[in-house]
Amino acid sequence: MAARAGGRLTFDALKKFVADRAKSPGYESIFDQLKVVSGGDGNCSCELVVSPKMLNDFGTLHGGVTASLVDAVSTYALTTTGSGRPGSSVDLNISYLRPVKVNEVITISARTLSCGRTIAFSCVDITKTNTGQLVAQGRHSKFVGEPKTSGSSTSS
């Protein structure tokens, strides 16, 4: 079980959580070199060297990989809020501003804007680590409420 402080994932637990996710057979395995730089209080910042497996046909970072980074790192930030659940995506929006080439290092900085009873909102900036140039910006909304049980019914 992950170490928690006041219901929030601690920084060390966050690093372990991210490392474990990268070892999973799911989509996050592409981020096996993702390094958590900081995290806590609804924030998470990671660095990643863009590898050849992350490129599109033009030799730059694939938009789908960028979207996955926004999804994943904003979820990591959410785990540090004390909501207790990583949630399920209900909306994901990405603005692609500049290309990123192989071997460039990027910083992915996620901030939880609000975490209510049922919905959480976050924003993510992806920058070139060496220049600080913004290359993509994302917004992510997640359902964090309790899922309905199969036995529940509604009356009209």
UniProtKB/TrEMBL annotation:
Chief location bin: cytoplasm
Catalysed reactions, semicolon-separated: octanoyl-CoA + H2O = octanoate + CoA + H(+); dodecanoyl-CoA + H2O = dodecanoate + CoA + H(+); a fatty acyl-CoA + H2O = a fatty acid + CoA + H(+); hexanoyl-CoA + H2O = hexanoate + CoA + H(+)
Keywords: Acetylation, Cytoplasm, Cytoskeleton, Hydrolase, Lipid metabolism, Mitochondrion, Nucleus
GO cellular-component term (any): cytosol
GO molecular function terms listed in the Swiss-Prot or TrEMBL record: fatty acyl-CoA hydrolase activity
UniProt xrefs under CDD domains: PaaI_thioesterase
Matches recorded under InterPro entries: ACOT13, HotDog_dom_sf, PAAI_dom, Thioestr_dom
Biological processes annotated in GO: lipid metabolic process
Domain Thioesterase intervals: 58-132
Gene3D superfamilies: Hotdog Thioesterase
Cellular location(s): Cytoplasm, Cytoskeleton, Spindle; Cytoplasm, Cytosol; Mitochondrion; Nucleus
Family the entry assigns: Belongs to the thioesterase PaaI family.
Subunit and interaction comment: Homotetramer. Interacts with PCTP.
PANTHER family hit by this protein: ACYL-COENZYME A THIOESTERASE 13, THIOESTERASE SUPERFAMILY MEMBER-RELATED
Biological function: Catalyzes the hydrolysis of acyl-CoAs into free fatty acids and coenzyme A (CoASH), regulating their respective intracellular levels. Has acyl-CoA thioesterase activity towards medium (C12) and long-chain (C18) fatty acyl-CoA substrates. Can also hydrolyze 3-hydroxyphenylacetyl-CoA and 3,4-dihydroxyphenylacetyl-CoA (in vitro). May play a role in controlling adaptive thermogenesis.
Protein name: Acyl-coenzyme A thioesterase 13
Species of the source: Arion vulgaris
